Amino acid sequence: MKFIALPALLLLLMSIQPVYSQCSLPAPTNLQSTMTAESALLKWKLSQSVSYYKVRYRKTGDAIWISSPQLNVSNYTISDLQPGTSYDLRVVPYCSNGQQGAYTFKLDTTIMPNIIILYLDDAPNGLTGATGAPDFVETPNIDLIAKNGMNFTNNSCLISLCAPSRAVMITGRAPARTGVKDNSTQQNFNLSLPTLSEQLQQAGIYTAVLGKFHDVFDAHNGTDWNYRYESVTAQGSATIKFSRNGGPAKKAGNDSVITKVLIDTAIALVHQTSQPLFLLLSLRDPHTPTKVPVPFNHYYDNETISFGVNTLPYSNLYPSFLYELPNKNYKDATQMTEILKNQYRAMAYLDSRIGDLLNALSTTGKLEHTLLLFTSDNGFMNDEHGLYGKRHPYHESVIAPLHIWYNEWFPSGTSELLTSSIDLYTTILRAAGITDSNSDGISIKDLYDGNVLRTMAYSSTGYTTEDNFQDMASSRTGWDADYKLIQYGCSQVTEAFFNLQNDPQELVNLINKPSLQSVIQEYRESLNDLAAHYGDTLPGTLLNCHLVDNNRNGQALNQHDALSIYPNPGNGRITVEGFENFLHVELRSVIGSHIEYIKESFDCSHLPDGLYLIHAISASGVPANVTFIKQE
Questions:
Q1: Packed helices 162-171 and 423-431: angle between N→C axes, nearest 10 degrees
Q2: Is it true that the peptide bond before 286 is cis, omega within 30 degrees of 0?
Q3: What is the pLDDT of residue 610?
Q4: Concatenated DSSP letters of 298-355
Q5: What is the arrangement of strands in the sheet containing 29-35, beginning at the earlier edge strand?
Q6: 40 has which bridge partners?
Q7: Is the bond preceding residue 289 a cis peptide, omega within 30 degrees?
Q8: Sign of the alpha-carbon dihedral angle for 589, 591, 594, 598
Q9: How far apart are CA 473 and CA 487, in angstroms?
Q10: In this predicted structure, what is the pLDDT of residue 140?
C-alpha cells in the first residue's frame, strides 16, 4: 500500500462513490479528518438540502456496520478504532422524508511512525541504570526509554565486531551474505542487497544517517539517504571533522565533542522534517578514546570500581590461545578502573544529550508517533574472564542492550525473549508497513506476539588476520535460557558448555561432564542447524589450538603459596592442604557470601555445580583466597 503523508497522520480516502436511493443528495464536501491510531475526527460542510447525517463504519470485510446517532452537526468522532486496521466509512446524508444517499470511503488507521535508532559503539550491558550499572552511574533519559518501552534483556549481536554488525543491521542478512566478515572487508559489501534506508526512502520516508558509517551505511554513495552527515575523525581527536552528503570533511565550528555535534544535528532534523523521519544516529560512544565536556570529564573521580570473581582468568578448560593474544586484549586493575570511569562519563554525557533529543520530539508532537530504539553494534569484555575487547563468544561480548519505546506495539516492561541484531531490519520495515521475505531475521513484534518462535540465539566470529588477531581462533556459539555451547575453530576439538541457570557468568566449563553428554550433543546439532540457516560455517583456517585441561595433565589448579585445594575441580570429598597454617577456613559463594566453615577436608557433594571461594585468615591476619570449582 502506498501511504500519503499528512501532518501527524496517514489517511487514505479512496473512491468517493455515491450510492443513490430515490432522492439525490450531494456528497459531503470539504471532508477532513484528524486521526490518531485509535480515533478519527471527521468534519464536512453542511448542505442546505440535507436534514441530518449519520456516520457508519466497519472493518473492511465485516458484514455489520456500526452507526452513529442522527447528527445535526457537520462533525463526528469515531473513538474505538483499532491501530493498523482498514475500515469502510460512510457519511450518510438524509432527506426530510427519510430518503438517503450513502457515500463510501476507505479509512486506514495506520500511522507511519518516525523511526529513530540510537546506535552505540561497543556498549555492553552494565553502563546504564537499566542494564545494571553501579548505583553511582546515573542515566535517567536512557533509563526512561527502557522504562516506558520494552527492555529486551537477551538481545544478541550476530557478530561481535563493528563493520560486520552494521552490515547485518542495515540489510537483515548474515555476514556470509553481506560479504563483510571483518573490519578489513568493508569494501566487499554486497551492493545487490536492499538496505533499510533504501526501502524506507521508497515508502516516502525522509532518511538520514549521522555519525560513524564504517563504509557500510553509505555503500550506495548516498542514493538511499536524503541526508548524510559522517563523523570522519575519532572521538578525542584534537580537531573533529564531518562530511555532509559526501562532501569534503570540514570542522564543525568550534565544537570539539563529536556527540554534541551529532545530537545537535539530530535535533535540527526533528524540527525541520515534516514527513515521517528515519534517523540512524550512529554514535561513537562509548568506544575508546572517549571525550566529554566539563563537568562530565570529572564525573566519578572519587568513586571506587569493584571487580567481581568473573574477572578472574579461566584456570581450566579454556582454549589455549585465550591468554596469548596481543597485549591490548588484557588490562590490569588500574587501567580498567580508568577505562570504566571513562565509559561511565561518556554515557552520562550522552544521556544528557538524549534528554535534549527526547525534549525536541516531545515539543514537536512527534514523540507519540515515534519508534525509538536504543542499542549497540556489539557488547564488550570489560575484564570479564581477564579479557578486554570484543570478538569473544562470551555473553559480555555478544549481548547488547536493546530498548524499544513504541507503545503501539509494546507495553512498558522487560522481556527475556531471544532477540538479535539481525531482527532490527525486519522489525523496522514492519513498522513502516513493508515486508521483505528474504531477510535472515524475524520481526521482534511477531516474536513478542507469539507468531514466531526462536528457541536458540546465535553468534559467530570468523578467523581474521586483521589488527593482529591472527592468533585468535574463529568461534560460533548458540544458547537458550538453560545452556550455552561454544565451538572454536581449532585444529583439535575445542568447546565450552555452560549452565546459564546455575552459572550465568560462564565460569565453569561443563563440556566434559559425563551426565551432560547427550544434552551437549543436542546443542551441537541445533548449532549446526543455525549455522546452515545463516550460511555460516567455521572457516577453513583452523588455528593450532586446543582445550587446556589441567586435570588430564595432572596439574594443580589455582594454588596459593600456603593454601591449596585438591581435587579442583572436584566432587565429593575435598582436601584443604595447608589448613594448619590458618586460624579458620571458610567456604564462600562467588559474591563473597558465607556458606560454611570447613576443616582440612570437606564434602562438597551437596553443592550445586559452580565456582566458589575458599577464604582463609592466618594468625597474623593475612587473608588467602583460592577459587574452587564444584563439578561432577
A1: 30
A2: yes
A3: 78
A4: GTTTTPPPP--GGGSPP-SSEETTTTSS-GGG---HHHHHHHHHHHHHHHHHHHHHHH
A5: 29-35, 40-45, 75-78
A6: 35, 78
A7: yes
A8: positive
A9: 10
A10: 98
The length of the chain is: 632
CB atoms within 10 A of CB 81: 18
Low-confidence ranges of the chain (pLDDT < 70): 1-38, 83-84, 102-111, 537-540, 551-561, 590-591
DSSP assignment of 573-616 equals: EEEEETGGGSSEEEEE-TT--EEEEE-SEEE-TTSPSEEEEEEE
Whole-Å CA distances, 504 to 223, 381, 457, 496: 45, 15, 15, 14
- Quick one: CA dihedral 126, 132, 136, 139, positive or negative? positive
What's the number of CA atoms in the CB half-sphere (13 Å) around residue 196?
A: 33
Eight-state DSSP code of residue 81: P
Query: What cell was used for 271?
Result: 524540527
Give the 3-state secondary structure of 113-147. Answer: CEEEEEEECCCCCCCCHHHCCCCCCCCHHHHHHHH
- Output the CA torsion sign for 509, 515, 520, 521: positive
| C-alpha cell at position 341 | 570511569
Which of the 8 DSSP states describes residue 290? P
CA distances from 67 to 57, 59, 88, 93, 94 (A): 7, 13, 12, 13, 14
Under a CB-based contact definition with an 8 Å cutoff, are residues 50 and 92 in contact? Answer: no
C-alpha angle 119/122/124, rounded to 5°? 95
Q: Residue 573, Cβ neighbours under 10 Å: how many?
A: 11
Provide the CB-side half-sphere exposure for 495 (13 A, CA): 18
Do 180 and 216 form a contact (C-beta atoms < 8 A)?
Answer: yes
Distance CA 385, CA 216 (A): 32
Grid coordinates representing 449? 506476539
Distance in angstroms (rounded) separating the CA atoms of residues 257 and 556: 51
The pLDDT tens digits of the residues spanning 513-547 come to 889 999 999 999 999 999 999 998 655 688 999 99
Task: For residue 251, list its beta bridge partners.
Answer: 241
Label the pairing between strands 29-35 and 40-45.
Answer: antiparallel
CA–CA gap between residue 383 and residue 309 (Å, rounded): 11
| Separation of alpha carbons 621 and 332, rounded Å | 26
* pLDDT score at 18: 36
How much is the pLDDT for 339? 97
Please name the helix (run of DSSP H) or strand (run of DSSP E) that holds residue 395, with its range, or none: helix 395-398
Residues facing residue 54 across a β-bridge: 92
Amino acid, res. 438 = N
The three cell numbers of residue 442 are 524475524
What 3-state DSSP class applies to 165?
A: helix
CA 135, 137, 140, 146 torsion: positive or negative? negative
Query: Integer distance in angstroms from the first to the last C-alpha of the chain?
Result: 60
| SS3 at position 280 | strand
Phi first, then psi: give them for residue 563, nearest 5 degrees. Answer: -145, 135
Q: Rg for the chain (alpha carbons), in Å?
A: 30
- CB contact at 8 A, 429 and 196: yes
Query: Rounded CA gap, 251 and 593, in Å?
Result: 54
621, 613 contact by CB (below 8 A): no
- For the chain, helix, strand, coil in percent to 5 are 25, 30, 45
